[in-house]
Amino acid sequence: MTQDEVFTHTLLGTLPPEIPAPATTAIDRVSKAKIRFGVAELTAMNIDNVQRWLTQIGDGIVDPKDPQKYLVHPSPRSAIELFIELLQFSVPKMKAVAIDVRDGEGNLQKLSVSDLQSIVSTQ
User: Which of 46, 55, 61, 93 could join 71 in a cystine, given CB atoms 3.0 to 4.6 angstroms apart?
Assistant: First the structure.
């Protein structure tokens, strides 16, 4: 049984008792990765539609029966806000990290990049 099948059977509750269940953290990581992949695939398949929809929101949709009226009023701000919301599915969010590098007496310490990375990874 492949690892994917083990995860699937575990989530469905159909994993045979002789096969040990994976750790919950591993299932969570795989589930999140599959969700991200699914959203990315859905986005990739609809990128032309998304572009069209954003343009329609920004430019508005004119009433074909009366070109002086809009079915959807132009809203560039809404189009930009929607675009920013969609970005979070494809671009990882940046997180600010503050590190206090003073010693016990308040003096600044000289740390290597690997030391700083080690400190950040434990926070």
Answer: 61
